[in-house]
Structures are given as C-alpha cells and as structure tokens.
Amino acid sequence: MHYRTLFSTLALALGLSVAPAHAERVYSVGTDATFAPFESLNNNKEVVGFDADLIKAIAQKSGLKIKLVNTPWEGLFAGLNTGDRDIVIAAVTITPERKASMDFSEPYFEAKQLIIVRDGSKVAKLADLKGKKVGVQTGTTGDTVAQKAFGKTSPDIRRYENIVLALTELRAGGIEAVVADNGVVNNYLTNNKNTQLKTIDDTSFAKEYYGIAVKKGNKAVLDQLNKGLAATKADGTYQKIYQQYFGR
C-alpha cells in the first residue's frame, strides 16, 4: 500500500478530513450587471460584457483566479471594506472622493457624461434643465453632476436603481432628461430602435476614467491588476476586447 493511501485510510478511520495542503485563492470580483455593454447577465445568468472580458484577461495574465459576482451598485463599495468582495470592476469612475476610501488600478476606459432627452426637446446644455425633473442612477457620477448643478437635496433629481429604468421613465414622459455615461447610453440607443430619444454633449462635462477598485491598502492585488492590465494592452488583447464592444 502506498504511504499516501495508508495515510488517507488512517485519517478516515480516525474521523479526520483529508484536504489539499494548499488551496489556490479565488478572488471575488463584484460587478453590477445592469450596465451593458460593460456588464450584464446573459440567458444563463452569467456576467458578460466589456468589463467581464477584460477582468478575465487581466486575471489570466497576472495569475489571479477570480469569480465574478453580480452585486447591486449600492453594495459594491461596502463589500470591499467588509471583505465580501476583493475587487470591483463596474465602470467605476475614479474620483477624489472614491480614492479616499479605496484604491484604483491604472485607468482602463475613458468616458463622459451625456444628457438624454426626448426628440423635440429644446434642452441644449445642463443649465437648461434647471427646474426640470432629471433622472440619474443612484450613486453614479451622473448623480454627482446633477447634484453639483441643482443641489444635493433638489427634489427635481430623480434617482433610479439603474439607467435602463431612468431611460424608460424618460420615454414615458415622467422626467425631462437623464444624465449618464456615454458608453451605456450609446449601447441602449443602438439596441433599442425608435426610442425617440437624442443625446446632448455638454462641453462643460469633463472626461472621466474608469478604474478597477480594491480595498484601501491592498497593494499586492493592485500591483497584480496593473501588471495584467498593462499586459493586455501590450499584446493587443485590450484592443480586441474594446473593438468587440465599441467597434473602433
């Protein structure tokens, strides 16, 4: 009898568990799968999209083993602090406020806010929306933009769980405009014909950059993410994924 078999037999006889000496760490990656084309659920309830493909490529190149976990936006960042999530990738804009409570990878995507209104609207810029009902997704940079323009407690800012709900309300006439990231808005308009909606590019909106978030001080994982991200850009993987979702 081999020694390993003998040990296993004795362990079972003594009621002991036989487990591998070392189990590879699986990192929990939180994402809010309501933000196509960055993250959404397919028919099999699997997280798919630009962010999903990118983090898988980054993990493969950096040696990280990951598991994507669909998480409501409101709980994403709290999950980092409690340890329920090790990594967050969810089209998260890097801002000074967020950097105070979490660490970010190097930027991986450039974005900008857009104003969406119904066809025929005379709105031409954000200032034109003063006194009008404006929809945003709770806790996003669109929410921040609206708060800065109209006040944090403005009753005219209507918050929604996701952008699709806000755009649906806009189409129904319940609000006058939506402020949201260009990537998700353009994807919605491409995949939903005859919406009778149009976009407005306010030149006062600054460029934004998405980053992958980790718990404050988690330098080890952050370094691996940056290493993997750099590798995807160096060998063309990033560009292939980008072209798949954004076509340029």
Automatic annotation (TrEMBL):
Residues 26-248 form the Solute-binding protein family 3/N-terminal domain. SMART domains: PBPb, PBPe. Keywords: Signal. Residues 26-248 form the Ionotropic glutamate receptor C-terminal domain. Residues 1-23 form the signal peptide. PANTHER family: ARGININE-BINDING EXTRACELLULAR PROTEIN ARTP, MEMBRANE-BOUND LYTIC MUREIN TRANSGLYCOSYLASE F. This is Basic amino acid ABC transporter substrate-binding protein. One of its GO terms (cellular component) is membrane.
